[in-house]
Amino acid sequence: MMMGKMCGVHKIAWILVLIGGINWGLVGGFQFNLVEAILGQWPVIVRVVYVLVGLSALAMLGAEKCCMGKDMMKK
Hints:
Layout: H1 8-30, H2 34-39, H3 43-61, H4 63-74
Helix pairs in contact: 1-3
């Protein structure tokens, strides 16, 4: 699935899932939490970012249907 064919919500979700994946890779490989390093002064914001990344992962489950639906409407 190409990012150009996704709706705006799924583009944002894809970016947040990518950020989450990079962060988990850094945590697992180097015990470095990038989100907390950047936003650690604001624990509520850190928690919001984690929730948004989780919700984005769930949103990506429906990305294929959303994108297929748009393609069907164009035809």
